[in-house]
Amino acid sequence: MSVILCTAGYDHTIRFWEALSGICSRTIQHPDSQVNRLCITPDKRFLAAAGHNNVKLYDIKSTNPNPVMTFEGHTNNITGVAFHCEGKWMVTSSEDGTVKVWDTRTGSLQRNYMHRAPVNDVVIHPNQGELISGDQAGMVRVWDLGESVCTHQLIPAEDTSVLSVSVASDGSLLCAGNKVGNVYIWRMVITDDTTRIIPVCTFQAHRDYLTRVLLSPDVKHLATCAADHTAKVWNLDTDYAPAKVAIKEWNERQAQKDPSENGDSNGDSAEGNNQNNELMRIFGDSSTDRDLLRITDTSTPREDTSQQTFMAGPDGPPMDPASNTLFLETTLVNHQRWVWDCAFSADSAYLVTVSSDHYARLWELSTGNIIRQYSGHHRGAVCVALNDYSEPR
């Protein structure tokens, strides 16, 4: 089983699929509740299924339909689950307002972090020493596992629920998406054993409820899923040829305009106009836009913290000057209802999506075509896990 692909949702079943043939090879019943999230251990031995208030760990290679371990302790829906790179511990987030770290060998609770609001997602930084979580109050928190404290509090938009977070495989970027379809990207820079988090860009990915943001393994793409029945793939590669052409053409058009059309009564150079355009691509020109990416570096309670506003730097991914978004590579449009979750292949060339329309689909991103459709769920499919890496990661 070099490729592990599984889906689950509201029909109380977990289904394993032969990725290439589309055949369902195994079904596990999950009678306790719907399944909210799935995660495969890096060594492909176990699958974690997060339900209403517990996480069940299943042996992937066994035919035993019963979990080998159950993690009890949350008091509301579990919304996120992720594994340490060697599978020694697992982190979960929950609508009970906590992020918990569990020892996967004993099942014991190791850490318990309070958010003061229902938590919608959690991921592990590649350094294995930090967690990033997002909550319904609009807060993104970074937790230091060694010191067991919150080191950063990010507030993309006040009181706008952060539904999904993703961190780059190389630790360079942090991404968050909120319920109104906005996406926020920060650069993570480690200096002198401390992490600086610098705003890069923000844009509206969907004009509807956003359910997932996910950075690709090669950190050249960003996938977003939403209630508008679509998943979109955005470009992050500074060498993306269509972006270079579009920006060059835009700048040439701007340079050819009458200075008065650009609001440039002083006759500034085209270079100055282009610099202004670069800022426009990141924030727009209103003070409210410039406040969208506020950062608070602190472990003290939110109420006691004075917020600081940071202006973004010019070293972010290429932005489309016509739409003030990342460059859109493809829109995946065949689902009939909400698209809840997605997973990239190891080579970042394919994406699996799941939807309330009961289907999972495998897409080839270079063409936007459906390669396989996985049919078998009787109610909405809301989570997917894929591991097709040739070596443990």
TrEMBL record:
<feature type="repeat" description="WD">
    <location>
        <begin position="71"/>
        <end position="112"/>
    </location>
</feature>
<feature type="repeat" description="WD">
    <location>
        <begin position="203"/>
        <end position="244"/>
    </location>
</feature>
<dbReference type="InterPro" id="IPR036322">
    <property type="entry name" value="WD40_repeat_dom_sf"/>
</dbReference>
<feature type="region of interest" description="Disordered">
    <location>
        <begin position="252"/>
        <end position="276"/>
    </location>
</feature>
<dbReference type="GO" id="GO:0031929">
    <property type="term" value="P:TOR signaling"/>
</dbReference>
<dbReference type="InterPro" id="IPR037588">
    <property type="entry name" value="MLST8"/>
</dbReference>
<dbReference type="InterPro" id="IPR020472">
    <property type="entry name" value="WD40_PAC1"/>
</dbReference>
<keyword id="KW-0853">WD repeat</keyword>
<feature type="repeat" description="WD">
    <location>
        <begin position="112"/>
        <end position="153"/>
    </location>
</feature>
<dbReference type="InterPro" id="IPR019775">
    <property type="entry name" value="WD40_repeat_CS"/>
</dbReference>
<dbReference type="InterPro" id="IPR001680">
    <property type="entry name" value="WD40_rpt"/>
</dbReference>
<protein>
    <recommendedName>
        <fullName>Target of rapamycin complex subunit LST8</fullName>
    </recommendedName>
</protein>
<feature type="compositionally biased region" description="Polar residues">
    <location>
        <begin position="262"/>
        <end position="276"/>
    </location>
</feature>
<dbReference type="Pfam" id="PF00400">
    <property type="entry name" value="WD40"/>
</dbReference>
<dbReference type="InterPro" id="IPR015943">
    <property type="entry name" value="WD40/YVTN_repeat-like_dom_sf"/>
</dbReference>
<dbReference type="GO" id="GO:0031931">
    <property type="term" value="C:TORC1 complex"/>
</dbReference>
<dbReference type="GO" id="GO:0032956">
    <property type="term" value="P:regulation of actin cytoskeleton organization"/>
</dbReference>
<dbReference type="GO" id="GO:0031932">
    <property type="term" value="C:TORC2 complex"/>
</dbReference>
<feature type="compositionally biased region" description="Basic and acidic residues">
    <location>
        <begin position="296"/>
        <end position="305"/>
    </location>
</feature>
<comment type="similarity">
    <text>Belongs to the WD repeat LST8 family.</text>
</comment>
<keyword id="KW-0677">Repeat</keyword>
<feature type="repeat" description="WD">
    <location>
        <begin position="332"/>
        <end position="373"/>
    </location>
</feature>
<feature type="region of interest" description="Disordered">
    <location>
        <begin position="296"/>
        <end position="318"/>
    </location>
</feature>
